[in-house]
Amino acid sequence: MTLFQLKVIVDDNGKKFWTLYDAGPKNVRCPLVCLPPVSGTADIYFRQLLGLSAKGYRVIAMEFPVHWNVQEFCESFRKLLDHLRLDKVHIFGSSLGGFLAQKFAEYTFRSPRVASLILCNTFVDTEIFQQSPASTVFWMMPSFVLKRSVLQGFDTGKYENDIADSIDFMVERLESLSQKELASRLAMNCASAYVEPQKFRDVDVTIIDVFDKCALSQSVKDEVYKCYPSARRAHLKSGGNFPYLSRCDEVNMYLQVHLRRFLNGRYTARDPRIKEPSPEEIGESSSHSSGAEAAAAVSVNTESE
User: Fold this and answer.
1) What element of type H or E holds 166?
2) What is the pTM of this model?
């Protein structure tokens, strides 16, 4: 399958554009949208684009233009959805992408545009980074200083090959970002802001976390759990900071499990002409792992705490 890059301009002066990869049946009007972390570009979700579109899902991986605050991002994202004629979307967001997904659900709570959220290694309060004062001066910092600050979150210890490869790929994507792109993302990542989940309690949420070492501490993860006590949880035994790359089969399986709840309704992300897969078909992408290994690697928790 060949994926074509699209650039969509939604601002009035025509200078800022969103970069998209749109895979899967275009008749689906409530697709899965993927938002990247600070260091990512739209193409980091190529395994989700290829894997899920092959099963009939429409997946749109997005890379947002330079926005210096969350409000500006939300206004631009809403205009993009209007341009694409999408009333609602399911959003899969990692780290900053997950935070922005929550803030967009909050921003549109009076006229909801988010059908559901899948949050991966993300947070609900930017105070965890303790860099709120610095967020106002990122715009003047040299690119190499900004990249070095991001790379500090990339642990350089020994990892198995899949995780090491995911880190190398993300470092490569980080290097492709301009100074303005990176500075604006860090500004949104670190400026004082927090999620108000009570404004979108009707939105279905799944939280994907890893048990091994990643940039976010357990206390940060616990805060996310507290905000969404009824959310479904998908735990991976390992995967590092970028499980959608290093553990793509497991992540894709849990994305399908999440989206199954919407298959027979208005907000399905899959072409309704395709027959509903059996549970065995959903899990077949993980068949390269032994049954015992797969069972140990992932689990879903639907209980409230």
Assistant:
1) helix 161-175
2) 0.86
